[in-house]
Amino acid sequence: MSLLQHPTDRAPLYPGLLPRRRFLATALALPAAPALAALLTPDEVLARDATFPDRPLDVPFVPTPMPVVDAMLDMARVTRNDLLYDLGSGDGRIVIRAAQRFGCRGVGVDLNPERVTEARAAARKAGSAIESLVRFEVGDVFTFDFSPATVVTMYLLPSVNLKLRPRILRELKPGTRIVSHDFDMGEWKPEDSRTVQNSQVFRWTVMANPPASLLR
Ligand SMILES: C[S@@+](CC[C@H](N)C(=O)[O-])C[C@H]1O[C@@H](n2cnc3c(N)ncnc32)[C@H](O)[C@@H]1O
Fold first, then answer.
1. Ligand 1 center from residue 58 Cα (angstroms)
2. In the structure, what pLDDT confidence band is assigned to residue 4 with cuts at 50, 70 and 90?
3. What distance in Å separates the CA atoms of residue 105 and residue 31, rounded to the nearest whole number?
4. Buried-most residue among 40, 95, 116, 213 (CB within 10 A)?
């Protein structure tokens, strides 16, 4: 299923009015749910709710297939000297894979704390050498500082890409490579694009003096 067709794209995962229902739905889907439900008092359930985002996600979690992850890293020409940021990092696979293949450092940011917990656990599982190279933070791609990046990866949505475009061009160093799974950047034409399985991957390089039309 493509990201655009994902049901949660039409119905946000975390509607602000339903965090408690969302928490219960998640908890009840877990294998240990009956035990968990029996252990938590209503106050504890509410306290746990506070760890969920207080606004809807802009993009549902749909992981990039590993062959597409590898194609994204190849197209970005990642080396061990890079600092890769994955915007909306999900289970952390892109950042962790880059560290495993190239020995580069990486940062993942995701609005959903559950995803960040998963990504940190995956990094731990990958071993201490990998864990020491990567970092996962709860944050919002629209406010998180990604300016130190030399490579940025994204699997977001067209509208989100366009909203991020002015920040990408203003805040990132010239020469920073951007790769996006499936979605382009409108008027900013990619310098390379490839089809991998059923996915499209696009690449851009941040230029020194972007035209004003791309900065809005
Ligand atoms: C399509 S998934 C991509 C996951 C991962 N980058 C990959 O390619 O496998 C999009 C991710 O963006 C996160 N997300 C949605 N809105 C966000 C926002 N405003 N700031 C940060 N992360 C966000 C979601 O929680 C989800 O994990």
1. 8
2. confident
3. 34
4. 95
Cα–Cα distance, 180 to 34 (Å, whole number): 40
Residues facing residue 199 across a β-bridge: 196
Q: Atom of ligand 1 at shortest distance to CA of 141?
A: 20
Cβ-contact 120, 92 below 8 angstroms: yes
Mean pLDDT of the chain: 84
Give pLDDT tens digits for 14-27. 332 223 233 223 33
Helices (H), 6-65: 7-10, 19-29, 33-39, 42-49
Is the distance from CB of 111 to CB of 119 less than 8 angstroms? no
pTM value is: 0.82
> Kindly report the CA angle at 64 between 214 and 86, in degrees rounded to 5?
50
203 lines ligand 1 (CB under 6 A): no
**Pairwise CA distance, residues 183 & 154, whole Å:** 9
Distance in Å, CA 137 to ligand 1 centroid: 12
DSSP state of 77: T
Ligand 1 center from residue 116 Cα (angstroms): 10
Query: Do residues 157 and 4 make contact, with C-beta atoms less than 8 angstroms apart?
Result: yes
**pLDDT score, position 106:** 98
